[in-house]
Amino acid sequence: MDKSAVRGTTHTADSVSELAGSMGQTQGAVRRSISTWGRIRSNPRVVVPGIILILIVLMAIVAPWILPHDPYDMNTRDRLAGPSTTYLLGTDEYGRDLLSRVILGSRTSLVISVSSVALATVFGLILGVFGGYLGGVWELISMRLVDALLTIPPILLAITVVAFLGPGIGNLIGVIALLYMTIFARISYGATLQVKNREFVEAERVLGAGTLRILWRSILPNILAPIFVQMSLSLGFAILLESGLSFLGLGTPPPKPSWGNMIGAGRGYMDQDAWYVLWPAIVISITILCCNVLGDGLRDSLDPRLKR
Predict the structure, then answer these.
(1) Burial class of residue 177 in the structure, from the number of CB atoms within 10 Å of its CB (0-12 exposed, 13-18 middle, 19+ buried)
(2) Burial environment of residue 53 by CB neighbours within 10 A (0 to 12, 13 to 18, 19 or more)
């Protein structure tokens, strides 16, 4: 047989083998995705808190259209009134409807928490992934910055920065993002160190892929599972931190309602109307509990080794 024909046949066979291998890897990835999604859907610790959080988010989105009363309307004759048919959750010290303020406060608290966690995730991933993959000077600078921030107690740093910059939603988002950025940086850094020497990453390097392409296509998809878990947990802690700062008067400035400043304002009237503090505290507790349970459920669903 002609040698050129043999070489052509060999080359064709190699191409078919490569194509079959690529199709097998794709089918394997699809099967793993379907299996992961099936575990998530069948886990009640993901489904139940997820539904409750979706309802809370929807309430915050449509808040201006479902308010039973104007949350800023003062009725001094009805101040510190208990639950009634007119005011389902009662009123505050100015006679404002508590139900309306709790609903509108959900928008403020969730906007601050979600925005801060999103910023923390983005900047933490940049520091951790680049530090873990590139090493050298970038690793030294990024990780030592993270270590320096971790040495300062979070609540003390938050109080100091907010007190210096002044209360406000923008300042609050920036402070909370700075605090939780360190957690995402450490998690993504450790996960990148585990992944960067795997075979599929080495194959990308051999094929001549650039750094950004490798990080985007090979590193990032394989470290997202712990990031998603940490996002759900950090969201609950961010709501708690925002509520604490607002409780101290360093968060959302009045008269704009948030769950934290409602509790801070109501603490002086607990002997006259305990409902004032109770309702925002219940909503905060339910939201944080759902975030924590959702984080535990995602951890179990995304890590097959934890499946019983």
Answers:
(1) buried
(2) buried
Instruction: Please give the average pLDDT of every successive group of 10 residues along the chain, which has 308 residues.
Output: 46 44 42 59 81 91 89 86 86 89 89 91 90 83 84 79 79 87 90 82 76 80 84 87 81 82 84 84 91 82 57
Report if pTM > 0.85.
Answer: no
Alpha-carbon distance 64 to 100, whole Å? Answer: 9
- Whether 288 and 282 have beta carbons less than 8 Å apart is answered as no
The amino acid occupying position 207 is L
- Name the 3-class secondary structure at 293: helix
Taking each continuous run of H as one helix and of E as one strand, the counts in the chain are 12, 0
Give φ, ψ of 288 to 5 degrees.
Answer: -65, -40
Contact indicator for 134, 76 with CB cutoff of 8 Å: no
Contact of 171 with 162, CB cutoff 8 Å: yes
H or E segment and range at residue 218: none
Residue 18 burial (CB < 10 Å; 0-12/13-18/19+)?
Answer: exposed
Q: Cα–Cα distance between 245 and 291 in angstroms, integer?
A: 20
3-state class (DSSP) for residue 96: coil
Query: What residue spans of 42-97 are helical by DSSP H?
Result: 44-61, 63-66
Measure the CA angle with vertex 77, ends 76 and 79; round to 5°.
60
Cα dihedral across residues 267, 270, 273, 275: positive or negative? positive
Rounded Cα distance, 270 and 54, in Å: 31
On the question of a cis peptide bond just before residue 255, with omega within 30 degrees of 0, the verdict is yes
d(CA 105, CA 245): 15
